[in-house]
From TrEMBL:
InterPro entries: Aldolase_TIM (IPR013785), NMO (IPR004136). Keywords: Flavoprotein, FMN, Oxidoreductase, Signal. This is Uncharacterized protein. The keyword Oxidoreductase applies. Residues 1-29 form the signal peptide. Transmembrane segments: none annotated. One of its GO terms (molecular function) is nitronate monooxygenase activity. It comes from Ganoderma sinense ZZ0214-1. The lineage of its organism: Eukaryota, Fungi, Dikarya, Basidiomycota, Agaricomycotina.
């Protein structure tokens, strides 16, 4: 199938400018690695969400990934790992251990998000002695939700790629972020990609479900796109059958909502100011808005999760979920996205015609 060339595909050595988001709760351990391995095999690039990983689980991850790519030799493992800044901040020694394990296992990239001191961890990744035990210094991807954050990441931190996450995105993100289209447009205007010293590749993240949507962002000037929810509707996902069924049933503009209610239900506290999450709008949100006490909500959520009742389960999802109609293996999702992307780019090219 025809490769799509952008600054992102050149940076990572991939054929398709599609990245699977680092999802810390939608998938975990070997299951998460399986998704990312299949995305990479499909020509894209996958990030494993390591926000809640332990040193032991990380080492198990790398055993699986290495066995999946037995011929890599000293080449970097063709996956990335994503870390949550505020969780790293909680324990410096533990954070450095997790990052060093990741670095010395020769991953291709590290993604950092949701912290008030991200630069601290960028510096550690770049200067850690673990780099001497690896054969490659990992690329740095940083997630941003505003033009101001993007300017800092590009001009001061000198990151290798910027993930521009708009409000449509599932999971955690900026409570006041603009739409993905607006954010990417503003960042591209502030950080031109074609100057003497081009800015790092800009990846669009939020609300996408199809290759045609990815093509639209490439036409806008983005170097690639990040998808998350679409990969939760796969057999490889750690989402429970009830959660997948809820995603398939989600329709309409009110199907998802930005809220902290879902974090309250699972007692996940500590997120930085102005960060919330987007998930399916269900009875958890209703109870929070009705003033039901948190302990009761948490007990109901636990019981519903054990019973497989999606009406009271945490189901992260982006606004693009309404365009997702079936569960299929990751490799088939990648073929579908790639085919759709190439077809749409070819259609766009036909819009330009010489005057007769």
């Amino acid at each position: 199938m025809q490769a799509v060339k952008t600054s992102l595909t050149r940076l990572l050595g991939i054929r398709v400018p599609i990245v699977c988001a680092a999802m810390a709760n939608g998938a975990n351990a070997q299951t998460a690695c399986h998704i990312q391995v299949e995305v990479t095999r499909g020509g894209g690039f996958g990030f494993v969400g390591a926000g809640f990983s332990t040193p032991e689980s990380l080492r198990q991850d790398f055993d699986f990934i290495r066995s999946s790519f037995p011929d890599r030799g000293n080449k970097p493992l063709p996956v990335g790992y994503g870390f949550i800044g505020w969780l790293l901040d909680k324990n410096e020694d533990s954070a450095k251990q997790l990052l060093d394990i990741t670095i010395e296992n020769n991953v291709q990239a590290i993604w950092l998000a949701f912290g008030t001191d991200i630069h601290r961890w960028i510096q550690h990744v770049r200067t850690s002695s673990a780099n001497a035990r690896a054969h490659h210094k990992p690329l740095i991807f940083v997630q941003v939700t505003s033009v101001e954050e993007a300017l800092v990441a590009a001009n001061e931190w000198k990151v290798d790629a910027i993930v521009a996450q708009g409000t449509e995105s599932g999971g955690h993100g900026g409570a006041s972020a603009p739409s993905t289209f607006t954010l990417v447009s503003e960042i591209l205007a502030a950080l031109p990609q074609d100057g003497a010293a081009p800015a790092p590749p800009i990846l669009a993240a939020g609300g996408m479900a199809t290759g045609a949507q990815v093509a639209a962002y490439l036409s806008l000037g983005a170097a690639g796109a990040v998808l998350g929810t679409r990969f939760l509707l796969t057999p490889e996902s750690a989402y429970k059958p009830a959660q997948r069924a809820a995603l398939l049933a989600a329709r309409g503009p009110g199907a998802t909502v930005r809220t902290m209610a879902l974090d309250t239900a699972r007692a996940s506290f500590g997120w930085p100011p102005n960060i919330d999450g987007r998930g399916l709008n269900n009875k958890i949100v209703d109870d929070i808005e009705a003033g039901v006490d948190h302990a009761t909500i948490q007990a109901r959520c636990k019981a519903a999760t054990e019973a497989g009742d999606s009406s009271y389960m945490v189901v992260w999802a982006g606004q693009g979920v309404s365009l997702m109609n079936e569960i299929k293996p990751v490799k088939d999702v990648m073929v579908e996205l790639h085919t759709d992307l190439v077809r749409q780019l070819q259609k766009s090219r036909r819009l330009l015609q010489e005057d007769s």
